[in-house]
Design brief:
Blueprint (H helix, E strand, L loop, with lengths): L1 H25 L5 H27 L2
Helix pairs in contact: 1-2
Length: about 60
């Protein structure tokens, strides 16, 4: 399960981090710290999401 979660995190984590950066830029937060914080929040949010998706895929 760890391997599947890791593979999914490579996609989910980068996608959510990118979404966070787009949200930060669309809110006119162009400073470096806001963009980094948004990317880190997205990447951290990707951990439980990828674990949940891997668990659902394992049960199929």
């Amino acid at each position: 399960m760890f391997r599947l979660t890791s593979l999914l995190y490579a996609i989910v984590g980068t996608t959510l981090a990118g979404i966070g950066v787009v949200v930060a830029v669309s809110l006119n937060l162009y400073d470096f710290q806001s963009i980094i914080v948004a990317a880190v929040i997205g990447a951290v949010a990707g951990l439980p999401v990828s674990w949940l998706v891997a668990r659902k895929l394992q049960s199929l």
